[in-house]
Amino acid sequence: MTDVETGYKAFRGDIIRNMRIGSSGFGFEIEATAKVAKLGCAIYEVPISYYGRTYDEGKKVGFADGLKAIWYVIRFNLFCTLRASFRQLPERNFTRERRQPFELQ
């Protein structure tokens, strides 16, 4: 993904309802994306229109936020298991002809 922090997120209902979410703020984007990736779901990146604010307009993201983002990436990709990420693992929807992981539709 080019920018996990910017964009819309859409999930199958059973996936997001069973996901254990422990972070808030910017950490949610990284946590949710990492946990969905652990399931093997297809992740689609679709362009959006986005105009970032300048510091004069109220942008509040700084160096410390970048460090937190790096920590979230490490934490949710290396130290969080699939089993710990979900209350109940969603059922995998496989086709008979070709066994594939989940696809978000």
Task: Lay out the secondary structure.
Elements: H1 13-18, H2 27-39, H3 63-78, H4 82-85
Helix pairs in contact: 2-3
Q: Please give the count of helices.
A: 4
Largest sheet: none
Backbone CA Rg:
16 Å
The helical percent reads: 25-40%
Q: Unreliable stretches, pLDDT < 50, 5 or more residues? A: 94-99
Shape: globular
**Percent of sequence in beta strands:** under 5%
Determine the structural class based on helices, strands and strand pairing: mainly alpha
Description:
With 105 residues, this protein is mainly α. The chain has one domain (1-105). It has helices at residues 13-18, 27-39, 63-78, 82-85. Helix 2 packs parallel to helix 3 (63-78). The chain is globular, with a radius of gyration of 16 Å. The chain starts with 12 loop residues before the first helix and ends in a 20-residue tail after the last helix. The model is unreliable at 94-99 (pLDDT under 50).
